[in-house]
Design goal:
By secondary structure, the chain is α/β, with parallel strands linked by helices. The protein has two domains: 4-141, no CATH class; 145-292, no CATH class. The protein is built from eight helices and twelve strands. It has helices at 4-8, 15-32, 68-86, 93-117, 120-141, 202-216, 244-253, 281-292, and strands spanning 35-39, 42-49, 52-55, 59-60, 145-157, 160-173, 190-195, 221-228, 230-233, 237-240, 259-264, 278-280. Strands 5-6-7-8-11-12 form a six-stranded mixed beta sheet, sandwiched between helices. Strands 1, 2, 3 and 4 form a four-stranded antiparallel beta sheet that branches. A hairpin with a 2-residue loop joins strand 5 (145-157) and strand 6 (160-173).
C-alpha cells in the first residue's frame, strides 16, 4: 500500500478516492495522537513522536466525524443525498448537515494527515489542491458540468503583447460542456474561487471580478467557496481570520459577489448583515446553484 503521506499528496479524481483517504486517516489518528486541547468547540490535537511535538489545525468537534465506522455510515447517507440533489429533489436540514459534515471531515482529515506526515510548506500546497479537487468532484457527482480554466488576458509590455494568466479554480456551467475558453468567459457560467480560507484571499476575489468583467466586457457571476476561517494561535488557542469589515467595504464600494459559501463558517458569518452574503456550502449545491446557473 502507498505510504499515507504519499497518498495524501496524490490527486483525487472521484468522491470514492476521498472516502478511502479519509478512512485511512481516521484509522491512523488514534495511533499517533497523544492529547488534545479544546477552545470554543474546536479541538487542537497534539502528537508527540521521537521527542517532536506537533500541534494540528483546529477541528470543529460539532461537525467532524472522528469515528471511521460513523464516517462510513454518514458517507453512504451523503451519497444518497447527492443522488437526490442530482435529480432535483428537495433536501431537508438533516440532509444538508450531512453534506457539510462529511465534506468537512474529508477535508480536515486530509489536513491533519498532511500536518502529521509532510513538511508544512508542502502540506499547505496539497491541502489546497485536495480541496479544489473535492469541490469539483462534488459538482460532478450532482451532474453539473465544470472544469478548471486559465483565462489569458493580453496586455502590452515593451511594445509587445504578453499575457496575464488568470487562474480560475472552477467554472460551473449549465451546458453539457463548459463554453468559457482561455480567451473569453460565458456570462451564463459561474467562476468559482475555491480556497481553504479567505485569509489574504478575500480581496482578490473582488479584484478578479473587476478584472474579468472589464476584460470580457459583460457581467460575470463569481462566487467563493471556503473551508473555514479559523486558525491555531500558539499551542492551545484559536483565532478567526475573516476580515469582516473589509468584506463589507468591498461589497459596498467595489461590487457584490454572487455568493460566499463555507463548510465551517466563522461566527461573524452567521450574523446580520453577513448572512445576506455568506451561507453554508450545502445551500449552494441544494438551492442556490439552480438560480446561479439559470441562463
Amino acid at each position: 500500500m502507498t505510504p499515507l503521506g504519499e497518498d495524501l499528496q496524490t490527486a483525487k479524481n472521484n468522491i470514492a478516492d476521498f472516502q478511502d483517504i479519509t478512512i485511512r486517516v481516521l484509522e491512523y489518528l488514534p495511533n499517533v495522537l497523544s492529547g488534545s486541547k479544546e477552545k470554543n468547540n474546536y479541538i487542537i490535537y497534539v502528537s508527540t513522536n521521537s521527542g517532536t511535538t506537533k500541534y494540528l489545525r483546529p477541528i470543529n468537534k460539532k461537525i467532524f466525524i472522528n469515528s471511521p465506522t460513523n464516517f462510513k455510515d454518514n458517507f453512504k447517507a451523503f451519497q444518497l443525498v447527492l443522488a437526490k440533489v442530482k435529480t432535483g429533489k428537495k433536501t431537508d436540514k438533516i440532509e444538508k448537515d450531512i453534506i457539510d459534515s462529511v465534506l468537512y471531515t474529508i477535508q480536515q482529515s486530509i489536513g491533519v494527515g498532511l500536518d502529521l506526515t509532510v513538511h508544512p510548506n508542502s502540506a499547505r500546497k496539497h491541502v489546497g489542491n485536495r480541496f479544489e479537487e473535492l469541490v469539483r468532484c462534488v459538482f460532478t457527482e450532482i451532474g453539473i458540468t465544470n472544469k478548471r480554466l486559465v483565462l489569458k488576458i493580453p496586455y502590452t509590455s515593451d511594445k509587445s503583447i504578453k499575457y496575464y494568466k488568470s487562474e480560475n479554480d472552477v467554472v460551473l456551467s449549465p451546458y453539457p460542456k463548459v463554453k468559457s475558453t482561455s480567451k473569453d468567459l460565458n456570462p451564463n457560467e459561474v467562476v468559482v474561487s475555491v480556497k481553504t480560507t479567505s485569509k489574504d484571499r478575500m480581496g482578490k476575489m473582488f479584484l478578479d471580478k473587476i478584472l474579468l468583467e472589464k476584460f470580457v466586457n459583460h457581467p460575470q457571476k463569481i462566487i467563493g467557496i471556503f473551508l473555514n476561517d479559523v486558525q491555531r494561535k500558539d499551542t492551545d488557542n484559536i483565532s478567526y481570520t475573516l476580515v469582516s469589515g473589509s468584506f463589507l467595504v468591498y461589497t459596498q464600494f467595489i461590487g457584490k459577489l454572487e455568493g460566499v459559501y463555507y463548510l465551517d463558517p466563522p461566527p461573524t458569518a452567521t450574523k446580520a448583515p453577513y448572512t445576506n452574503y455568506m451561507k453554508q456550502f450545502s445551500e449552494l449545491i441544494t438551492t442556490d446553484i439552480k438560480t446561479l446557473l439559470t441562463p
